[in-house]
Amino acid sequence: MGTNESTFSGTxxxxxxxxxxxxxxxxxxxxAARLMxxxxxxxSFAFLTALAAQVQIPLPGTxxxxxxxxxxxxLAGLMLSPGSAVAAMLIYLAAGWGGxxxxxxxxxxxxxxxAGYLIAFPIAAWLVALLARGGRHTPLRLMFSAGLGLxxxxxxxxxxxxxxxxxxxxAVAAGLLPFAVKGVVEVLMAAAAVTCxxxxxxxxNESQDxx
Length: 211
Prior knowledge:
Layout: H1 12-22, H2 30-54, E1 56-57, E2 66-67, H3 69-79, H4 82-97, H5 115-132, H6 139-165, H7 168-175, H8 180-209
Antiparallel strand pairs: 1-2
Helix pairs in contact: 1-2, 2-3, 2-4, 3-4, 3-5, 3-6, 3-8, 4-5, 5-6, 6-7, 6-8
């Protein structure tokens, strides 16, 4: 019987790694190799989030810039295990806290009004990964998981912004309304990207099993 991506109960990256182990690709050092691959995946998604932060559009009337960070966070959650997804976001935040220019130039980093969005990244990535694992990656499941991650980022980010500005309605107008449509689009994009990834991996596994 062939082994494909849906056989594994983990997330996409985990499934690929587990598939390599089960086919003997990793060999006797399977545990060390898997740890190396998982670490590399976390670092890669931290780097992706840093790159996404540089794609930015400052908006008038709000201290929150428009970036692609949320898309990177959702992809990390959908494609990594909960622990690896959290690790990716913590690596990203640690890099910014350590002085590397990984945050948006138009944001306020971890010490200002927009810090809530950044702080929410590990929480959202963990929740998305937790909801997405343990079953097949159907588009509906992916969208639901990513949608809840989006809600977490907005909840924490807008809440933090409300405290900083001293007014909830102003925070909603500045930190939620201008980004709501973009957030929904990013949820759809993340779900579509992972769906395509899973299909490619399933076809790859089928072709290898048929050899």
